[in-house]
TrEMBL record:
PANTHER family: HTH-TYPE TRANSCRIPTIONAL REGULATOR, HTH-TYPE TRANSCRIPTIONAL REGULATOR SUTR. This is Cro/Cl family transcriptional regulator. InterPro entries: Cro/C1-type_HTH, HTH_RamB, IrrE_HExxH, Lambda_DNA-bd_dom_sf, ScfR_C, TransReg_Diox_bact_type. Belongs to the short-chain fatty acyl-CoA assimilation regulator (ScfR) family. Gene3D superfamilies: lambda repressor-like DNA-binding domains.
Amino acid sequence: MAEQKIFAGPRIRRIRNQLELTQTAMAQDLDISPSYLNLIERNQRPLTVQLLLKLASVYKIDMEALQGSNDTSLSQLKEIFSDPLLAAELPGDQELIEIAEVAPNVSVAVQKLYRAYSESQTRLSDLSDLLAREGHETSLAAARLPTDEVRDTLEKRPNHFPALEGEAESFNKLLQAGDDLLGALKKWFTAEHGIVVKILPVKAMPNWRRRYDRHTNRLFISERLSPFDQLREVAMEASLVRMQVAIAAEIQKLKLSSDEAKRLMRFEMGRYAAHALMMPYDAFLQACKKSKYDIDVLRARFSVSFEQAANRITMLGRKDAAGIPFFMSEVDQAGNKFRRAGAEGYPQSRFGGYCPKLPVHASFSQPAQILTEAVEMPDGTQFMIIARTLEGPQGAFNERTRRTAILLGCDVKHKNEVIYGTALPGGLTEDGDMLTVPIGPACRVCERAGCLARAEAPVTKPLGLDEMAAGLSAFDFV
């Protein structure tokens, strides 16, 4: 019976170094020659089953550790070298495999160094945000992925594009859609471009929301989507075709650094244009004012989803006809941020949006319910916050789909202009002020003492290490 041969030289060398043995000493323990052990450590001779058993017997070594691969180390190295700072350094994974297998200690050191680098970048970002809130601009910058660049660009500017609004109004007049925008768009596609729109079952489109087949000149839409999202996908495709010049001009103004970022921004511009087409500016603004921004009324009136109507509310930034300056963010159950925008830009420096006490996190335990709160930042700034879970694509019985929730906010001074202001607490504090929930921008830059929801220690304060006293918070600081 043939022996199983295992090449594990770097692991043997690491074990020997950990035991502080010379090659001669280990060779004597294993009843082999030092020269043979040297060949094993250089992967020029295999580690046989008999030698494996001997290692396990003499040094109490787990054989699985010698036979297994460094999959965990390799995956961590791949993650490290996918960072924009290092992404162009390696042509493939082969060198990473060699590092993980041949130099495991180097691999561990690289991982430790990258963790320290990531932590320092996070701290610099937190401190930069803190300085920005105090009126001190910084020039701190780090390598970013194209997705990060697109998100940052959209967060920092008003979520309003006048040129696209004008194009959408002209397109809407051309379509003369009435109450059937989807039907009008299908007719336009067929008449102008010979494109047929088809809804396909899950089996035919297992991984796509929308796909255009150039060979058959057909636009396929997944049946997984709700009727509202199906309409948006068709409206997006139509907007990208009809408004391509206006969209290209807007992208040019944003001065993105890479072609990939520009392609991603084109998708975002198409999404914006689709919302403008589905909910024409003037009609939507008038409906907002009459309904006091009741999103459920708006979604019914324009036959859109809650998410689409909430998104559109943040786009009402026309100079001569502006709505209440709402801002929004979308998160999942793990707290990952997917989208942030606002009529005046997302108020990162004033609001942050990373506080675990925000109602957007609690909304997952109350699906489809609108939660409304008045919140107060440490500097006294107050916001009215609305949160609700969203319906995503329909999954199959055995699929776990991504669940997200949306947070809408505006300055609390607008509470009487918004229907949700009636749901705010009616009580007053001892000083006669409105009851609010005290929040912070993010735990790492929040200095509220005794916060029961604190998840991290603040970077601006030293930890309190008094063995004779312990505060209510998970992290005491002085």
